[in-house]
Amino acid sequence: MPSWKTAAATSSIIWMRSFGHLVILFSLCCFTSAYSERDRVQDLMTRYPLIDGHNDLALQLRILHNNRLSQIDLRNVTKVATDITRLRAGHVQAQMFSVYVMCGAQDKDVVRLTLEQIDVVRRMCTEYQDFELVTSAQELIDSKRHNKIACLISIEGGHSIDSSLPALRMFYQLGVRSMALTHTCNTPWAESSSDIYDVYQRQGNSLTHFGKAVVEEMNRLGMIVDLSHTSWETAQAVLNHSRAPVIFSHSSSYTICNHSRNVPDWLLHKLKENRGLIMVNLYSKFISCKGEATISQVADHFDHIKKLIGAESIGIGGDFEGAVSFPKGLEDVSKYPALIQGLLQRKWSESELADVLRRNFMRVFEEVEKVRDQLRSLQPSEVQIPLEEVQNPCRLVLKAPNLKLLPSVKISSSAAQHRPKGLVILTMALLFSNLLMTE
Ligand SMILES: *[C@@H]1O[C@H](CO)[C@@H](O)[C@H](O)[C@H]1NC(C)=O
Ligand SMILES: *[C@@H]1O[C@H](CO)[C@@H](O)[C@H](O)[C@H]1NC(C)=O
Ligand SMILES: *[C@@H]1O[C@H](CO)[C@@H](O)[C@H](O)[C@H]1NC(C)=O
Ligand SMILES: [Zn+2]
């Protein structure tokens, strides 16, 4: 064989060999890049695990089990999208658990029902070793070190306080650190984004004098004001009035999907001035305005808000258990890494994602506590809502009954009927005055 042929054969063998190497190298590259992207998310979320703004597991415990916690194992609850196993898999290190009572209970037994929801969250967060109930920014930081899932308690709807600042303060004592001023109904003092309940309609007074007192008292206590579910006018009035940063715990961008639960750009600018936070809601209806959605459509909300007011104003408020359909690939609380991967692909930096995952919320919580500390010389507010603003048949007016106005019945039976009622009123008055003195 001529030497040139040998040389050619040899070189072609060498060439083929290196081509083979190249193919191997190339597929290895692809494999590593796919592998490292998921790895990068895992690594990032291990260092900066998520603080999520909104989850309605407590509502599901009410619906499915009437709050009988002993009937289920929270490590594995197949009927819902949230359990300890999946929270761990999703790198959820802290969860704001909503204590939500439907608007139908307004002016009825809403305070009892709210207490029962607080009870069930407190129970689940103390009876399971994986959870830890936290009530301060420092405890939240510590819980990460303890490898716990921190539980924060958040009231969803100002109707829960029955227009009473003492009730608000007692909820704070039970560990509540955030409250949405409305749910889907107006309260006597703030306005909802929804009009499905035709109650407490007012013209051009979206945050009353008492409503401002609620915001002031929340600032004084160090309770985070949540504007998800309020009307835009109420949100604006609160942003004008609050001394501390506020949050939208589970709302998305109105420009991307024009649902009234989402936040318009002009309000996002006000939120930025307030140093507050919008925690993007993943509910398909608020993402795509349709019954279904994709991770890419969720990323559109993040991109838009970042462009408008910066990554330092954004968080995540999944709304699992409170909504019925979630984007493909984000069906339960274990899926948050897929969202973070989607944002990495949209060129979000690790620092921006660390902000979104937890640093922004920590900043807001710490600033809310700082404002509380600045206001510590203030006494508990004694502002009371005017009676005419809360008149309803279930509100007992604490004064001695006027016997002359009672229906005329035989004197003896009338006295027998009403004396105990008078006693109850006296006892309640004493109880209330005691509470105020020990406050
Ligand atoms: C969770 O419970 C279901 C039945 O309710 C069971 O089939 C499944 O294996 C359990 N998973 C784990 C991780 O324990
Ligand atoms: C909030 O303040 C702005 C000006 O700073 C004012 O134009 C607006 O009317 C106020 N809105 C409410 C609802 O208080
Ligand atoms: C929302 O947008 C859709 C189409 O993008 C439009 O048909 C609808 O009228 C809009 N709704 C409101 C309230 O602006
Ligand atoms: Zn909600």
TrEMBL record:
Compartment annotation: Membrane
Mind listing the UniProt keywords for this protein, alphabetically?
A: Dipeptidase, Disulfide bond, Glycoprotein, GPI-anchor, Hydrolase, Lipoprotein, Membrane, Metal-binding, Metalloprotease, Protease, Zinc
What Pfam families would the database entry show? Peptidase_M19
Q: What Gene3D superfamilies does this protein map onto?
A: Metal-dependent hydrolases
Look up and give the membrane topology term: Lipid-anchor; GPI-anchor
| The enzyme's E.C. designation | 3.4.13.19
- EC class, as a word, reads hydrolase
For this entry, list what GO says about its biological process.
developmental growth; proteolysis
Q: Tell me the cofactors it needs.
A: Zn(2+)
From the record, give the transmembrane residue ranges.
none
- Which Gene Ontology molecular function entries are recorded, alphabetically? metal ion binding; metallodipeptidase activity
Which InterPro entries does the UniProt record give? Dipep_AS, Metal_Hydrolase, Pept_M19
The chemistry this enzyme catalyses reads: an L-aminoacyl-L-amino acid + H2O = 2 an L-alpha-amino acid
A single GO cellular-component term on record: side of membrane
This protein's superkingdom?
Answer: Eukaryota
Q: How does it assemble?
A: Homodimer; disulfide-linked.
Annotated family: Belongs to the metallo-dependent hydrolases superfamily. Peptidase M19 family.
* UniProt xrefs under PANTHER family: DIPEPTIDASE 2, MICROSOMAL DIPEPTIDASE
Under what name is this protein listed?
A: Dipeptidase
Q: Which gene encodes it?
A: DPEP2
